[in-house]
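Practice problem: predict the structure.
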Amino acid sequence: MPTGPIELFALHHHSSSEDRAMAAVVKEYVDTNVKPHVAEWFEKGEVPARELMRDFGSLGALGMHLQGYGCAGTTATAYGLAALELEAGDSGIRSMVSVQGSLAMFAIYEFGTEDQKQTWLPRMATGEIIGCFGLTEADFGSNPQGMLTNAKRDGQDWILNGSKMWITNGSVADVAVVWAQTTEGIRGFIVPTNSPGFVSNIIHKKMSLRASITSELVFTDVRLPADSMLPEVQGLRGPLSCLNEARFGIAFGALGAARDCLETAIDYSINRVQFDRPIAGYQLTQKKLADMTLELGKGMLLALHLSHLKDTVGVTPEQISLGKLNNAREALKIARECRSILGGNGITLEYPIIRHMNNLESVFTYEGTNEMHTLVIGHALTGLAAFK
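Answer:
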């Protein structure tokens, strides 16, 4: 009997039964409520974000690795496995959950006051309130230090001006965590999206992450009270700490897309007959499947190792870069190879592969480009920074 590509590695002993149970709950939801509809969402460039977020809140998937405030308080391993199952549905769906929990909620959880946490986190954990994370700007992606968005004091208040680009959840968010230049350095602010002067514009004509809402945020003299600032961090350490949380999820999530592509390609190759036999019976096809299975399994071992570090002694940003760089890169390669196995059928939305392949082009770039993670690792190995 054939075995699944992940099952071949017998990885169950690398996670607890509780971790796997949480992942199974997410998988069941994705299989039932996401996969049957996501091709249509992707084609139309629309997604029922509020409905999905409320459902993910009821599953305990929003901010699931945070403690208290209505969050599930799971292990990092459980969060990683859940991210994998979400992205097996679609990278855009995983991005929605990741931005909510690992960026917006984590920023408030890690750097906010107790009052800020009590005000926002419980309702974000249920999906009643949707959050977004404003760091990237049109001209400042890999170099956030150069951001132009600024906040200036006006009495006890702050006045926020500027813009942010490529913001997941931006146009459905109720609250934005926005990073801005101040006389004290870069600071984070909690910005309700109904604030006067706050405008979000949906980005159209995307060919990737179409089942996800991506927006530009524009701030024009947005007045914020003094207690909107996150007081417990100053400088880039704040947003970069949040990005490390999200990148950890990507190390798992990208493998979910890769697994879905590979399982689709295996099933297709067994059932697709050419020259009077299934194409799975040809050596070239089996070599492709074996090579992809090896890379998927190695990526899983790396991701699980990182989650065990995170759950025990802690994981460094450089180690997370190892996971994000390798697993996003190999997942994209797997998607492309699987597309070739399906031939012409591989480019239609009848199968998930071209959708995953297009999505992974974004995953390969966001939360730190392939080049930047390469240089982070190079810096760790040599002690020499080659970023400029």
